[in-house]
Amino acid sequence: MPTIHLDTPIRRDGQTIAVIELRKPAAGELRGLSMLALLQMDVDAIATLLPRISTPTVSKPEALQMDPADLLAVGVEVAGFLQQKAETTAYPPQ
After folding, report:
1. Would you give the DSSP letter of residue 24?
2. 11 pairs with which residues across the strands?
C-alpha cells in the first residue's frame, strides 16, 4: 500500500495525522465517480474517493482542507491505481 507523508498534517480531535496509506480501490468503490475525473485529478473526485481507500480514514471535508501538494500526491497514486500493470512497467523510472 502506498504511503503518503503529508507536508501539512491533518488535525483531528487533538490528534495529528501525518501519514496516510492508500489501497487500490475495487470497482465498486468507484461508484458515482468518473475515472476520467480521477485521471484529471479533479479535486472533488479525489476528495470523494479518499475516505473509501485511506487508512486512517480521511473524511471528504478533511480532504478538501488538505494542502494542495498533499492532495496532488494522493491524486498521483490514485491515477497509478487506474493503470494496468503492463502500463506501469512499460515505462520504468529513469
Report:
1. P
2. 16
Helix, strand, coil proportions of the chain in percent (round to 5)?
50, 20, 30
pLDDT at 25 over 60: yes
Nearest C-alpha neighbor of 53 from the set 75, 81, 25: 25
C-beta separation of 65 from 36 below 8 A: no
Cell of 3: 504511503
Distance CA 9, CA 38 (A): 23
Q: Quick one: which of 61, 81, 73 has its CA closest to 3?
A: 73
Give dist(CA 61, CA 36) in Å, integer. Answer: 22
Residue found by looking up cell 461508484 in the block: 31
- Give the position of cell 481507500: 53
Q: pTM here?
A: 0.86
| Amino acid, single-letter form, for residue 29 | E
> Nearest Cα to 24, choosing from 6, 2, 5, 39?
2
